[in-house]
Design goal:
alpha/beta, binds nicotinamide-adenine-dinucleotide
Length: 261
């Protein structure tokens, strides 16, 4: 296998819950460009279909699905629909999550409903989608790759009301290591990426504040926040044969931020 073939996803099928979002959408297009067939599952068919169109525009094959990934039966359905269309699921990219900037409260009064919402959005959706996809991978016996999206906030506190989000992303990083340990015997690798701020609509209200953004950028050695295009290379790598001996890793994509801490 040549060096470039190692990074190919030719013949693979990737399911991307949250694929209608900023980061998930960029992953869907990049995974298709690397050769994968892509199933995109988001809250509405319209959101998924918009990204499916972008995948088709680069010559890829895409299936658009609607899902509420906080429901177990819904996650089982999107896995079944992906298999019905493409024959299997090799790769799961958990791209649902976020919400931190919408529920910022001091830690000592962090409200239970905001806490539960962040945990559902980030942890429950990742848990249920992963269980459904991995059960199918185990049953098919062909192995696979799971990619989670954690955050530098799993490891770094921030003095800005982030209690629930740091807990949720801490759980995602821990589950990445736990699942990698449990599912290695099935040939299933589990890794995560751990970005700092990525310039997406989710964090626009924070990054639109020049003082806040300047503070963030001043702590990042490479001198800027991330873009979705910064995440796709590491994501393709972790889901490809180039990373076939890599599992249980949480890869920082942070312009050097955590190297300075
Ligand atoms: N943007 C950043 O700065 C940043 C930084 C680090 C980590 N992350 C993480 O990256 C991931 C993606 O972030 P993003 O900026 O692309 O967010 P986004 O909101 O653009 O994408 C998330 C997608 O998930 C979908 N979704 C939400 N709940 C769902 C449900 N129950 N069922 C199905 N789909 C659902 C949304 O409709 C949306 O399309 C999140 O886990 C986020 O925490 C983002």
């Amino acid at each position: 296998m040549s060096g470039s073939d190692l990074f190919s996803l030719e013949g693979r099928v990737a399911l991307i819950p949250g694929g209608g979002g900023a980061i998930g959408g960029a992953m869907a297009v990049a995974f298709a460009q690397a050769g994968a067939k892509v199933a995109i599952a988001d809250v509405t068919l319209e959101r998924s279909e918009a990204v499916a169109e972008s995948v088709r525009a680069v010559g890829g094959e895409a299936l658009a699905l609607a899902v509420d990934a906080t429901q177990e039966s819904e996650c089982e359905r999107i896995v079944a629909e992906t298999i019905a269309r493409f024959g299997k699921v090799d790769v799961l990219v958990n791209a649902i999550g976020g919400g931190a900037g919408r529920v910022l409260y001091d830690a000592e009064v962090y409200p239970r409903d905001a806490w539960d919402w962040i945990m559902e959005l980030n942890v429950r959706s990742t848990l249920l989608a992963t269980q459904a996809a991995v059960r199918a991978m185990i049953a098919a016996g062909h192995g696979g790759a799971v990619l989670n999206i954690s955050s530098v906030r799993a490891d770094l506190g921030i003095n800005a009301g982030y209690s629930a989000y740091v807990a949720a992303k801490g759980a995602i990083s821990s589950l990445t290591r736990q699942w990698a340990t449990e599912w290695a015997k099935h040939g299933i690798r589990v890794n995560a990426i751990r970005p700092t701020f990525v310039d997406t609509p989710q964090v626009a209200m924070l990054l639109d504040d020049p003082a806040f953004k300047a503070g963030v950028v001043s702590r990042i050695p490479l001198g800027r926040v991330g873009g979705t295009e910064d995440l796709v290379g590491p994501a393709v790598f972790l889901c490809s044969d180039a990373a076939r001996f890599v599992t249980g890793q949480v890869l920082g994509i942070d312009g050097g931020l955590t190297a300075t801490q």
